[in-house]
Amino acid sequence: MRSLRSTAALVAAAALTVGGTVAVTAPAKADPVKPPRLSAAAITKKLNDQIYTPGTAWMTKPDGTVVVSYDPTVTGTKLSQLTGLTKQLGPNVKLEKLPGKLQKYISGGMATYGGEYKCSVGFNVQRRGKYYFLTAGHCGEVAARWYQDPNHRVFTGAVHHASYPWNDYSLVVYRTDIPMKPPGGSVYLYNGHSQDITKAVNPGIGQYVYRSGATSGLHSGRVTGLNAVVNYGDGRVAGLIRTSVCAEPGDSGGPLFYRQYAFGLTSGGSGDCNTGGVTYFQPVVEALNVYGVSIY
Fold first, then answer.
1. Which residues pair with 169 in a beta bridge?
2. What digits encode the pLDDT tens for the residues 77-107?
3. What span, in angstroms and rounded, lies between the C-alpha atoms of 168 and 239?
4. Rounded to two decimals, what is the model's pTM?
5. Which residues make Cβ contacts (< 8 Å) with residue 280, sequence separation at least 6?
6. What's the CA gap between 61 and 6, in Å, rounded?
7. Distance, CA of 178 to CA of 30 (rounded, Å)
8. Catalytic residue among 107, 120, 168, 216, which?
9. What dihedral do alpha carbons 162, 256, 242, 273 form, nearest 10°?
């Protein structure tokens, strides 16, 4: 007698045989699996953790797209690393090349007002009857004393505190050794007129803005991004306002504003005021809160 196991095997074999042909069951087709679509926050974290290359920057647009920028100095393996990572991060990332070198707008070898450098006054501020002005943090880091003239004959004030990199703001206290009337609370427009500034706010995307600076004077544009990250040659600055306003070396620290509203302090950017470019600003509200001072 055949064993039950043998009989079962014959039945199974018979079940697989049709007219002498073995019927083979095809495996189920596997559907392709798309990689998860990363959020802007997740993309920004990856960039923050992996990209420190000078000449790069990124920001998140209102639609959730992350714009990653790089300047002409980013080439070779550095560019390959950047483009490779942006491809891995998926369709929510847009890569753009800036028209010129990404730099802080501080100038060396030009007219000097602090150490060997020239910057611009941002906004005059006060606290408990004491007067100060805000300017870029990278300006406050390179010189402790600031003057009204390039020959350092008329002393203006000394740096009270500076924060750079990561932030880009500093506070300079006006001299108190001689009687002085309070400095004005306005911004010079380089046309013989000034704009009174009474309030500091954070701008929105699309806000029309003006920028005033010691090198290039008054220029205008619009806010194109918020919370931007920029990698300068000597450090990273985060939380910046990105604009279409031009600027040039020596404009660092100058004010970003519209009518009576203060928005930011010139940090750096790409391009110039002949060809245009991109300029980044330190939000002034953050600096005011850190130092406990106010616009007046």
1. 163
2. 999 999 999 999 999 999 999 989 999 886 5
3. 10
4. 0.84
5. 57, 228, 230, 237, 240, 241, 242, 243, 267, 268, 269
6. 70
7. 82
8. 168
9. -110
251 is catalytic: no
Tell me the residue type at 206.
G
**H-state helical runs in 38-100:** 40-50, 76-88
134 in Cβ contact with 289 (< 8 Å): no
Q: At a CB cut-off of 8 Å and minimum separation 6, what does 182 contact? A: 126, 131
Q: What is the mean pLDDT of the chain?
A: 88
- For residue 2, what is the DSSP state? -
Report the sign of the C-alpha dihedral through residues 186, 189, 194, 196, in that order.
Answer: negative
Distance CA 70, CA 154 (A): 40
Active-site residue among 107, 163, 216, 252? 252
Q: Does the bond joining 165 to the residue before it have cis omega, within 30 degrees of 0?
A: yes
Q: Which of 71, 138, 212, 251 is catalytic?
A: 138
Please confirm, yes or no, whether 160 is among the known catalytic residues.
no
Token pair for 263: 């928005």
Catalytic residue status for 161: no
Contact at 8 Å (CB) between 293 and 174? Answer: no
Q: Are 241 and 258 in contact (CB under 8 A)?
A: no
